[in-house]
Fold this sequence. Notes:
The chain is mainly alpha-helical. It is built from six helices and no strands.
Amino acid sequence: MLPSPPGNLCDPAKFEEYVNETMQRLWDDPFIDDCHHVPQAYYLTSLDGHRLCDHIVRYEHLQTELTQLLKLYHNLSEKATRLGLVNRHRACKSLPMSEELQQRLRDFFHVDYELGLGS
Length: 119
């Protein structure tokens, strides 16, 4: 079960506090919170290097890319929209982060950045 985030994560100070606390926990156990923080790159290939997926949907473009992907499979985008599976995430439009926090995230998720998955 995921821990409750501290208040409004669109507040830069609360977000940074939450990320710092989570990062501290990740160094001890990278599989906390049902593996929600595991680098995305680990899901792309098997241990022997074989690619496991055909499509990568970036969170930064979730609505557009997920809709396009679902259209490839029997026009699932209409069903997903009707069921509320698309565009139900709540995201901050632009959230400033300190250089230090950005570097900590790049260091931890370096594999994602090396594969071009980080923004």
